[in-house]
Structures are given as structure tokens and as C-alpha cells.
Amino acid sequence: MDETALQIKLKTLPSAPGVYQYFDANGTIIYVGKAKNLKKRVSSYFTKTHDSGKTRVLVKKIKEIKHIVVETETDALLLENNLIKKHQPRYNVLLKDDKTYPWICIKKERFPRVFSTRRVIKDGSEYFGPYTNFKTIHTLLDLIKGVYPLRTCNYDLSEAKIESGKYKVCLEYHLGNCKGPCEGYESVEDYDENIIAIREILKGNFKDSLSQFKNQMKTLAADLNFEAAQQVKEKIDILQNYQAKSTIVNPKISNVDVFTIMSDESFGYVNFLQISYGSIIRSHTLEIKKKLDETDKQLLELAITEIRQRFHSNSKEIYVPFKVNLGEDVRVTVPQLGDKKRIIDLSLRNAKYYRMERFKQIKITDPDRHVNRIMAQMKTDLRLHEEPRHIECFDNSNIQGTHPVAACVVFKDGKPSKKDYRHFNIKTVEGPDDFASMEEVVFRRYKRLLEEQHPLPQLIIIDGGKGQLSSALKALQDLGLRGKIAIIGIAKRLEELFYPDDPVPLYLDKKSETLKVIQQLRNEAHRFGIEHHRNRRSKSALNTELETISGIGEKTIVELLSHFKSVKRIANASLEDLEAVVGFSRANKIFNHYHTS
Questions:
Q1: Among 183, 210, 244, which residue terminates a domain?
Q2: Backbone angles phi, psi at 246, to 5 degrees
């Protein structure tokens, strides 16, 4: 299909819900998507300017479009999910944990067995699950066997075979774990009553079993049959103990699915909590690999459809952190307050922990992948032309113009390279002139690197605002390095980044890993500079006017000087600024000292 044919196709698409498929020149399906309005959604790919490079590449490769119109948005979701699974298109998100999960089976037979399995056989048996790990299954099966005696043998316990005396009771009968249905010691009706109770426990409903056992215990105690009553009490304790271990939410909240999402630049992490009879009976987190610039809403809709299919959930209501389109069969609630909101927060916390655990695992198993991810993110966040594998950060420190020093700390692959740290004693500048000091230090540092033919960094960070950045730029200009090394300045408020020739600062997300690396660099530069100060100054160097203030000790002076850089700035600081560094009481003493005299 040539370009004109493609344009004709776009004009003739229906304004109805459906699924669209993109094909490349080889006829290979490369993307599947769903839409409330096919015409609007598909046309947007060809009319909008896309920020994501991946999306631009996808659009260039589209040579043919096919679509399927469906009745409702729910149908579109399900169809999209099935087509992605079947064709696994190159540009669709990747669901990372498509593996076989275990189930608990109640076998369709006379005197049903209850056991765990990974194979679901459609023979009329009941399957509960799937469970995300075997630990939960073992705990549940131990609980069931502790409360209800069940057979474990795989004999065909037909009425004719039992009556013919074909089987004999085994050790399980003598241990009290089975009541001997193989020899007719237990009726089908009594056994099936236990199976009904087990079915409710597997659904998360302990109330019926507890109520039944409590009545039984009272009857036995009233008949003075204390030994049997004690045995029933032990069963009650087992059930209550297991229920206590479950995360209990509001008992009024039942048969609800909860979904939240946590995402970064490469992956989405969707947590699913299933709530039944006021207890969380299942928690599962799905990791989704992004292929394009998918939004959290798109990822969450896809994940909800996938998870509900996989875990066979028929809950009529779901809780989510924001509105999603799942059709009319499901009630979507976005909680704002109370117990429902607390469940959303709990689910989101699970997603965050899962993401942190994955990062820790990657750090151990594949440290290079972890570093590569952070470097790629820093390149994107800081608008750089190359990954900042080698970063250098400069910080000036002086105490009232005495012993002015500067520090240069070096990070390689996002980690401190302490052997490359350098101290500088300011030589050409008299007094506390931060701008001139910065110019001198940057010039000396890179003049030395050029002379010794050492590799230059990909990024220089200047601890200071526009003034210090301009001074550092002048030094690079004098060395012929301007434009060859990326350089940014950090204002006092850490989230403000200044670029050369750009009056508007860049603001980073406070939770971003890029900002964390920059904060670490800045903190290291402060620490390294102050440490050098302490080594250089004598007692007389600290014998400043600050020491004459009653109640102000050396530790406070160091805190003040590391923040304000000079005594002059401390003297001119407002009470609020001082209080932010050393607290109200000491700030008051310092402010009064300078402003009453």
C-alpha cells in the first residue's frame, strides 16, 4: 500500500470502537492498538509531531493498516490483548512474567481430593488460583488438612468397590488425618460438607467455618465432652491464626480487584490486590516493558485486562488511582478517602517495593544493565548529546576570605571515583570572590588535563547559579573547550538547573534518579571541600567573630560556613535563613548579635 493509498485508508476509517493493526513493508504486524474512535486514534499517528523517537520510527515503517470494529470498548480491550499475545508485535509492550502459576484443585470424583497442580485439566474439576507462589498454596493446604480430614490416596472410591472390600485403611487413617472412606467409615454426605467448607476457605471466607466450629464446641462442652471440645477449639485457633496473618481490610469491602501502577522511562509495574470478605487473598505485580511512549493509563488498561484474564477474576468492581476505560461490565472506582484510599496506597506501595527489588536484583545479577539504564536516563533528563559516564562537580569554600579552597569531585558510571578527587587552594584571588575563584579552579583543572592528555568529562556541574556558571564558561572559553563539554549550574534549590545561554532553569522530578546522582555529587563536593578546610585552618583561622557569640560552638560555625560560605553572608542573612540551617534558638542569638550592635 503506497502513501496515497495509506492516506485514503485514513480518511475512510470508521469513527467506532475497535482494534487497529500496523504492518511493515514485509507484511509483518508491528503494532496493535485499541481505540474508542478508530478514525481519531489512527489519524493522530500521522498528524501529530511525536516527542518519542521510537514512535517516529514506528510511523515511518507503517505501510498497511488493518482494523477490526467491535461493539464495545471491553471487546476492544480483550481483542487487543489476545492479538498482542498471538503476534507479539515489535512495538507493543511486553508482559514480563508470562509463566505457568500453580492452582489448588478440588477433583471431580467421589470423595474429592484437594491438591496443588500446575496443569489445568478441563474435566469438571474446580481450580482455585492461580497463586503467585507455592508458599501460599502450602500454607492453605496445611490449614485445610489441619482442620478437615481428607483422603490423599488416588483410589477410585466407587460405591461398588468400597462395598466389595477392595481397599484397606492406610496409615493416614490411624494418624487421624483421614476418616477412612475407602472402607465406608465416612459417608459421602459428611465428606462433601467438608468440601463445601474448604471451597469457602479457598474463596477467603472463614466466617462460616468459624461459626460452625464455635457452635460445635459449645454443644460438646455443654455435654461435658471436653476432650472433643478441645480438639474443635484447636481447629478454631488454626483458622483464626491464619485469618490474622491475612491483611484485613474493611469487612464491608468484598469481591473487589485493586490495581495501581508505578512506572519509569522503560518499565511499568502494575500491582493487583484481590479482596474477598474483607481480606486480601492475592497480591501480584506485573512488570511491563515499554516499547513506545505509552502512558500509565494505556499500560494500566492493558495490564488489568491481562491480569483479570489470567487469574479468572469476575469481580464487578475495581479500585484504581485514576479513571480507566474498561467497558460497562465493570464498575470503576477512584477512591479519595478512607479505607478504600488506604487499599490503593497499600497496592501502590507493593508496586514501588517490587520495582526497588527488581533494581536491587539487577544491580547484583547485571550491574552493567543498571549503570546503562541510569546513564541513558541522565542523558535524556539533562538533554545531553552523549551519556555522562564521567562527571566532575566543583564547589567553592572559604571562611571570611581566609584559606579559600575549592573541591572537584569525580563520578564515573554514576559512582564516586575518589582517587580522581582534587583540592584546590585559591592562588590568584584576594578575598571571598566566588566567581573569580570558580574561574581560576576550572581553568587550572582542565589546563592540567589537556597538558597531561587525560580524558575530559562528558559533563561539568557547577555548584552555584548563573554567576558561577558564567565564570566557569569563561575558563572553558579561554581553553578552547566551550561547546565541547556539557556544563550546567545548580542553584541553591537543588531542583533548579541552569544551562549556558538559557535564562529558564530546568526542573527535575524530585524522585528521579538523575536528581539523586546530582545530589550525591553536590553532597560529596561539600563534604570534600569542608574536610579540606578543617585540615588547613588553624585555631586562629576559626577565631572569627562568630566564636565570640555566646552559645555558638565550632560545630555550628562549620554548619553555617558550609551553607553561607562566608561570615559576611552570615551577618547579612535573615532570621528565617539562619533558622533553616541551625534552628530557632541559635539563629536568634546570631541575628541579635549582628543586628543589635
A1: 244
A2: -70, 150
What distance in Å separates the CA atoms of residue 398 and residue 404, rounded to the nearest whole number? Answer: 4
Task: Give the pLDDT confidence of 347-371 residue by residue, as tens digits.
Answer: 888 788 888 877 777 777 777 777 8
Contacts (Cβ under 8 Å, ≥6 apart) of 396: 404, 405, 406, 434, 437, 438, 441, 463, 464, 468, 529, 565
Residues comprising the chain, all counted: 597
Of the residues 331, 363, 395, the one at which a domain ends:
363
What secondary structure does DSSP assign to 316-348, as a single string? SEEE-SS-----SSSEEE---SHHHHHHHHHHH
Domain check: are 555 and 531 in the same one? no
Tell me the per-residue pLDDT of 445-488, one tens digit each, with 9 for 90 and over.
999 888 888 889 999 988 877 888 888 888 888 888 888 888 88
Q: Do 374 and 414 contact (CB within 8 A), yes or no?
A: yes
**One domain, residues 572 and 550:** yes
Domain of 279, CATH number, reads 3.30.420
Phi first, then psi: give them for residue 510, nearest 5 degrees: -60, -20
Residues 6+ positions from 451 with CB-CB distance below 8 Å: none
Identify the helix (H) or strand (E) that includes residue 519: helix 513-536
What is the Cα gyration radius of the chain? 34
172 domain residue, yes or no = yes
* Phi (first) and psi of residue 574, to 5 degrees: -80, 160
Sign of CA dihedral 284, 287, 292, 296: positive
Single-letter amino acid, residue 390: H
Do both 532 and 431 map to the same domain? yes
Judge if 519 and 437 occupy the same domain: yes
Say yes or no to pLDDT of 539 above 60.
no
Calpha distance 476→485 (Å, rounded):
9
Residues 421 and 521: their CA atoms lie apart, in Å, by: 11
CB 592 within 8 A of CB 555: no
